[in-house]
Design goal:
InterPro entries: WD40/YVTN_repeat-like_dom_sf, WD40_repeat_dom_sf, WD40_rpt. This protein is mostly beta strands. It is about 10% helix and about 45% strand. The protein has two helices and eight strands, in the order E-E-E-E-E-E-E-H-E-H. The strands form two sheets. A five-stranded antiparallel sheet has the order 1-2-3-4-5, with no helix packed on it. Strands 6-7-8 form a three-stranded antiparallel sheet, with no helix packed on it. It is elongated, with a radius of gyration of 15 Å.
Amino acid sequence: MNSKRGKVQDAKRHFASVNDIAFSPLVSGAFVTGDNDGHVIMWDARSRKRVIELPTCPNSVASLSYNHVGQLLAVASSYTYQEANEMQQEDLPSEVRLLKNLQRQELLSQG
């Protein structure tokens, strides 16, 4: 991750602006990033590698949050200002939810 530019670089993708980072309360050194392209990726800080890439959100990731034990990850996705202006107001969903049940064993076996 290039902290000066707020970008994630991966050989399989172009650069994308990172909108949020959430650190796992379940696994030390694990964190997730959400970007403008709708990608949500869990990283292992020690190995500096991806652990899991969740299914891509339809829009940019606005916010990420774990529950208090770190088994659930909530991902909020939203339209950009420009996209919202291009769409009819009634076409916009009032709420978008994506939850992933994260198992400690799944995370440790991936890293």
